[in-house]
Write a sequence for this structure.
């Protein structure tokens, strides 16, 4: 007769062991998902004073399964500036700022959409990018580093990029 804590049969021991291992794997998977979500969360505004530019060559992600090999997602190639539509808005009280900036953006080869206009007062100059177009926003930010914040736009945004000049925008010389 088996002892008080001994399994009654080898099958019940295997079942008990598989439940424990399954629970541990589930806990590891949940922790991995939480860590990835926290790392990819990003912030709306940078902590430092300089522009926020993330490397388009992100590190490879690994799955929670120990037998799976790491997967590397290719860096998306941004569209050429001539294919990127940009709407320019002025979130400051400075008259003509959006128009002057729009001219600079157009000279850089970007396609302007609509007429530069005013927006609500904005503290930080921001690039709002359409879902799936972060690469274009990063390329634009590299050309115009005074835009210090990147945000994904609502699904209703028609242009690839909508840029809002904020109070931090440098004075024209």
């Amino acid at each position: 007769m088996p002892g008080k804590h001994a399994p009654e049969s080898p099958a019940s021991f295997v079942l008990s062991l598989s439940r424990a291992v399954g629970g541990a794997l589930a806990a590891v998977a949940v922790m991995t998902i939480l860590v990835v979500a926290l790392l990819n969360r990003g912030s709306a505004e940078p902590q430092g004073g300089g522009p926020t530019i993330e490397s388009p060559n992100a590190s490879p992600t690994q799955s929670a399964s120990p037998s799976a090999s790491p997967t590397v997602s290719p860096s998306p190639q941004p569209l050429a500036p001539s294919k990127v539509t940009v709407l320019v808005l002025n979130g400051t009280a400075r008259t003509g700022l959006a128009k002057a900036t729009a001219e600079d953006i157009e000279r850089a080869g970007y396609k302007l959409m609509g007429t530069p206009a005013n927006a609500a007062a904005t503290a930080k100059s921001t690039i709002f990018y359409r879902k799936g177009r972060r690469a274009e926003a990063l390329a634009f930010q590299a050309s115009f580093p005074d835009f210090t914040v990147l945000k994904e736009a609502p699904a209703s945004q028609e242009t690839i990029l909508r840029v809002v000049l904020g109070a931090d925008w440098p004075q024209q010389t």
